[in-house]
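Example 3.2
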Amino acid sequence: MKTILIVGGSGFIGTNLSEYFCERGIKVINFSRSPSHVHHENLIDICGDCKNTTILNEIFANYKIDIVLHSLTSFTAMDEVGSSQEVLATNLSAFIDLIGIMKNHGVKKLVYISSGGSIYGMADAPIKETHIISPVSFYGWMKESCEHYLEFASRLDSEFNFLILRPANVYGKYQKIERIIGVALRNAIIGKSMDIYGDVTTCKDYIHIDDFCEIVEKLMQSQKWNEIYNVGSGVGTSIEDILKYAQIIANNKIEINYHERKSGDVPYNILDIGKLKETINKSNFVSVESGMHDMYKYVLSITNRESY
């Protein structure tokens, strides 16, 4: 049985990946500040701070890790950064230390979850992996820095292999209800007005978490390392469409309050996924409308719990 260490395995993407791999007979070690929402015989929770190199060394000493999957980020593109020292320590310095510890223990494969929404900056057409990197947020810059360090680490050690995945806007179960799809569904359920920053024509690429997990597994199986992949649906969906779907699914109207676009946000972001499709031969993706129907049950359960 293979063993995957997921750093940040209690977050939205990490939780889903943990569940996905455990159900396929792979042992998962989740290293996060808090335990996973997933309970499975193949899952081991180890709680701690990612900056704690002592705990990390113990994990690699006690378990035979085959692959490390890094899905940890302590802030988002929309967050204001108070102390850059703390952000750098958690998201960059700890990442560099992790790679050093991996090498010391002979672990040579790392999958890094970067960002397809923040790293490219402004664009007006589907974005290829070769597009110029020009983030407009500190979050995007941080992802860019980690990507560059991976390439640097691979130059220093030709046996060290990485995959950089640049996901579009991933959505689905276990996600905090603070992103557009979750908020639209929740507000439609409870009949609450919706705050929109920018306008409803903002068009972005959304990918359901089930598609994302499948893609991660297939890319790891492809054995095509030291590559960068956009991971999205390749289809743009506007905020207007998301609001329409939410109101139809919940059978309720949403009042819209418009505000100025937030700093760090981009009005158009659709990924060109030609390289991904060619590598893993995937052509079918969950549509946003279908994915929102699926997510509705999760959002409804969260909303019902919050009402008590």
